[in-house]
Amino acid sequence: MAQIATAARPLLKIRKLHKSYGAHEVLKGISLDIHEGEVVSIIGASGSGKSTFLRCLNLMETPTSGFMDFERFAFDYEQGARRQPTPQQLCELRARIGMVFQSYNLWPHMTVLENVIEAPIRVRRMPRRQAVAEAEALLQRIGLYEKRHAYPSKLSGGQQQRVAIVRALAMAPKVMLFDEVTSALDPELVGEVLALIGSLAADGMTMLLVTHEMAFARDVGTRTLFFDGGVIAEDGPPDAIIGAPRSERLRQFLRRVLHQPAALGETA
């Protein structure tokens, strides 16, 4: 597990982040600092707010209230403040905070290469020749260069997910968000996607991952958050959170996902 030297200024600062859908409050005041190079795994039961939290970070979901600070962006959703993003700022933010979902979301009518170069050309205004060269280099890195002219339907699930990750990387993001990117894959395909994410971690990419892959979270992550009921119930190094959970609620969760009937963590 990599160790991160905490910088004085966080790359991403979140304060009192709330998100409600009508009367249902999903996020109940999340406050968190993320520093450059951190690999933060987010664990928790279904419905605990993990995916909603990620979607709020790149503003695919609009927070009900709270404050976010990232690079030159600072958005305040508290009543009366109204420092909310313009459409141009939204576009820039989503280019800088890339996101990959459990469904691959590749455009089926485009080849692998066309999927990867579309956003750099349209959003970053990159010359096509440069976009193609950078895309081919990324595809070469993940072993899919020979598939660059294939359509998504001709790829395995693991290959499609790796292309989805490369498509996000082509925008040169500062932070990557992964929302259970292996949950839709057959077990034999999970490893190739995790290997790619692990190589990004080794390169120093700042990442937040919602995952149920506990071994991966422990071995690759620098930090683990346990979400429960819309709050961060535990936050710390992976070995401590996964190996020696403090709360009975986290012990119950880990026993279930690790399929261990014994009282996990009670002797740690």
Written description of the protein model:
With 268 residues, the chain is of the alpha/beta class. It has 9 helices and 10 strands. A 6-stranded mixed β-sheet has the order 6-7-8-3-9-10, with helices on both faces. A hairpin with a 2-residue loop joins strand 4 and strand 5.
Extended strand count: 10
Q: What are the secondary-structure elements, in order, as H or E? A: EEEHEEHEHHHEHEHEEHH
This entry's quaternary arrangement is: single chain
The main sheet comes to: 6 strands, mixed
Shape category: globular
Structure class: alpha/beta
Percent of residues in β-strands? 15-25%
Query: Could you give the order of strands across the largest sheet?
Result: 6-7-8-3-9-10
Classify the helix fraction into a percent range: 25-40%
Distance between the termini: 19 Å
Q: How many H/I helical runs?
A: 9
